[in-house]
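Co-fold these.
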Amino acid sequence: MAIQQEQNFSAPEFFAHLIKRDKSAIEKVVRAYTEHLYRGALGLGFSPDAAAEVVQSVWVTFFEVVSNFEGRSHIRTFIFGILYNKASEMRKDQGRYDDSDPIEEVLDRRFDSNGHWLRPPVDPEQFMITSQTMELINSCIDRLPVSQRMAFCLKEIDDHGSKDICNILGVSVTNLGVLLFRAKNRLRECIESKGPKQA
Amino acid sequence: MLKCKEIVRILSSDEPLSFLRKAELKMHLAMCGNCSRYAKHLNIMQISFINLFKQKTAVGQSEVKQLEDKVLHNFRAPNRKGDH
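Predicted complex below.
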């Protein structure tokens, strides 16, 4: 569904209508962002049924809290922030940024004290663009914490800018870099370990 | 000079780079087989991930319309305020 009239959604008057639960305003915003949300939930690994439920619950929360929205961010950012919280809740994953993560140690062990490769990346059949790689990624990505998965999804897929993504996840730009770093290295390690072993 | 470990961090964290840093990165990748392999891995992973994501999130318009209608219907239901 088209999001062409996007600018209108950020106007204070539009929010006033939403807060008053103006029917046509509700209809406009729901029709504009439901597909986006639904695809986001599917991308986060929810089944179609579960994704549809998540989307409905995002909208319920959205209208509960819309009066607190102070227009600091784009409405889409606001809505995706709610999606992120729901997904974290449902996955029983706090979705918080952690200072430490075991993947950092795994990666550290690949380097010597001078920062040179001790265990370099394999030369890989499993790193070809094949349906097998896609299957591997599919099984590996389900193991990512929600925050890392969401960071990776938003970064690679959507037209969300870094600032948007930081607002959605509630992290600083530096921490977003760390989340991406962890997500990508987790995935890469996972694919490498699960792929066809080299002799 | 950038160490391999720093290259890995730069590549995977999408850190914005200065012109000088970019040149340094390019030079390192041109000389270091391990890091360039790592970069290639990331690239393939990204492409595969995007393909996968497109597959997973390919939804029909009728499916979306149905969901939108459901959401809107819930808001029109008379007891919408009573259940939270």
